[in-house]
Every structure is written in structure tokens, then in C-alpha cells.
Design a protein that fits this description.
single chain; 185 residues; alpha+beta; Peroxidase, domain 1; four-stranded mixed beta sheet; 8 helices; 4 strands; 12% strand
């Protein structure tokens, strides 16, 4: 399994549901969504932030202080700052990507759409993202939100994961299939 995949377990789902309820109650769901996208973008682009959240060596108090300071500096809403601090304080900082993913899935379901996780060998252009989104909407018959990530190991093409369904058109998989076919011959 590649490190770009996130397995959402029971705890991230519970935290995501709690945040969704809090955001709706505070009537700040759009703001929290935007905050989590910003945080996820920071997380994906920073090896130091990943190390901070995942390292068991760094004290919980230090994680709380660093993550809340980062959230404050990024001008995330007070609710999002408090939530990130609470998650870190409960020793769940490593679950933040899973929590964000579960949150996005829940919000999409409530809106009648779905989240597709698209992993490509290289960063997708806006036109490519739009084309994929349009094709998925036609195929699924409902709106689709797209989360993109890059995995150079794919060599080319992309992989789309929607819920439990996986559509793999990566060059890596095609080469592996060819290798297996040649082995059998």
C-alpha cells in the first residue's frame, strides 16, 4: 500500500462526525471545509509537518502547541484551531489526514455528491481535473468532488478510488499485468 492512501478507521470517522456536527451547529461548515483543505494542503507539502504529527517521540504537549500555532498562523477559524488542538491533545495527531478524508466524505454525502480520490503519476492540470470530474459525473450520475494526490511510482496514468471501488489505469499496473501474462506464456 502506498503512503498516499489513508485508511479511515473508527476513530477518524468519529472525530470527523463530531467536527461536522460542531460546524453545522456553529453555522460555519463552509469555513471549516476551507480550513481543512488548507491544512491538508500544508500537510501534503510539508515533510516536517508529517513528521510532527506521526512521530511518537515528540511529546503530546509539543504537538498541541505546534499544531495550534500553525493553525493560528494559517488564520484557520477558531473552531478548526480548537479541533486540531483537541485531536493532538488526545494523541490522535497522526489521524488528522484520515479525519479530514472522512469529514470530506461525510460532507459530500450530505450534499448528494461523492468524493473521488485521484492519484496520478504527475500533478494534474486544471483541464485534466475538470475532464475527470465531468466523466465521473456522467458515469456515476451525480456530482463528484475530487481529491488529487501524486504518486510517481505509477509511472503514468492515474488511479481513481470512489468508496470501495477502484479504477486503475496506471502504467505501473498495465506493465505488471503484461509481466504476469508473459510469465504464463
Amino acid at each position: 500500500m502506498s503512503d498516499t492512501e489513508v485508511i479511515t478507521g473508527e476513530a477518524p470517522t468519529r472525530y470527523a462526525l463530531a467536527l461536522l456536527d460542531l460546524a453545522e451547529e456553529a453555522k460555519s461548515l463552509p469555513r471549516v471545509e476551507k480550513d481543512l483543505k488548507s491544512f491538508k494542503k500544508m500537510y501534503d507539502s510539508s515533510a516536517d509537518l508529517k513528521h510532527l504529527t506521526e512521530s511518537p517521540v515528540i511529546a503530546t504537549e509539543d504537538k498541541v502547541a505546534a499544531l495550534t500555532a500553525l493553525a493560528k498562523k494559517a488564520k484557520l477559524s477558531a473552531l478548526t484551531q480548537q479541533f486540531i488542538g483537541t485531536v493532538a491533545g488526545n494523541r490522535r495527531a497522526a489521524d488528522l489526514p484520515g479525519i479530514i478524508s472522512a469529514f470530506n466524505d461525510m460532507v459530500a454525502r450530505r450534499r448528494g455528491s461523492q468524493v473521488a480520490k485521484v492519484t496520478s503519476a504527475a500533478k494534474l492540470t486544471a483541464a485534466q481535473t475538470t475532464a475527470i470530474k465531468s466523466q465521473l459525473k456522467k458515469t456515476l450520475g451525480r456530482p463528484v468532488d475530487i481529491e488529487t494526490s501524486v504518486d510517481p511510482d505509477l509511472l503514468g496514468g492515474f488511479v481513481v478510488r470512489i468508496g470501495s471501488r477502484l479504477y486503475d489505469s496506471s502504467l505501473k499496473t498495465k506493465l505488471e499485468d503484461l509481466r504476469l501474462a508473459l510469465k504464463e506464456a
